[in-house]
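Input/output pair, single chain:
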Amino acid sequence: MRNETKLAVCDKYIGMRADIFLSESIVGLTRSAAGKLLAGGYVTCRGVPVRKNDRLKANDIVMCAIPTPATYAATAEDIPLDIIHEDADIIVINKPRSLVVHPAAGHFSGTLVNALLHHCGGSLSGIGGVQRPGIVHRLDKDTSGVMVVAKNDAAHQSLSTQLANRQMGRVYQAVTIGRVKTETQTVNIPIGRHPIDRKKMAVFTRHDGRCREALTHLTVLEQFSRFTLLQARLETGRTHQIRVHLAHIGYPVLGDVVYGPKKQPFNTDGQVLHAKLLILRHPRTGEEMVFDAPLPDYFTKAVLKCAGTTK
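Output:
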């Protein structure tokens, strides 16, 4: 079976390679997966198969027939889920810290996808592929908070479009090392894969093919003697974006030993970063929905420690 997706080429994509266009237009579809769809003849324009190196033209309409996986590579596991909302199209989860979102090297079980397969059965979209069914966006393993998952391809495409068009609101809270002096600021610095350590991301001083635009809007919520409680609103959603931007401006996330100091002020068992709010339009009804994931215990304990009210 196939689920066909219709994609219009707007001005920003004119002249772009087809594989890049697909990976940017369908959130959750990697460049590699896009290449496989193109190579398999699943992508056409004007009835002709599109190759990955083909350049798109103004007013092109690209049709992408995404195969529905008969079976999932990941297996269902009975793992408890903190469900904020669920209906026929979406399921909204409050992800705990230390839970990996989808199977990958070193984490082939015990992930959010394994839990979703048990809870939802076959009712997850296939756009993300066999290892990431339903996954529209993700959170780092040690980032907690609200996530939306698509239960069918129509919902996935709607949510992906909202993400791509910056119509989905994602608001985080973080505790940083150091007192942030500016009450509100926007960090607008491109992010790409680190040129040496490929497991990390890095900022780039100029925009080139190695990086993508990244905007983070910061607001100080509370200051302590050596720490700051911040709100971070994402306008783009690059890998590790908040952590990389905060480290770059000199205020790394407390507990983040990847982008912050190896020796932390005190033990937090991971980064103090929480996805607090998610604002989206329901893929079927168009209704604006706001989902709030309460601050978890690890976060509030870290804030109290920063405030000096506990030892």
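Residues 14 and 57 are 5 Å apart (CA to CA). The chain is about 20% helix and 30% strand.
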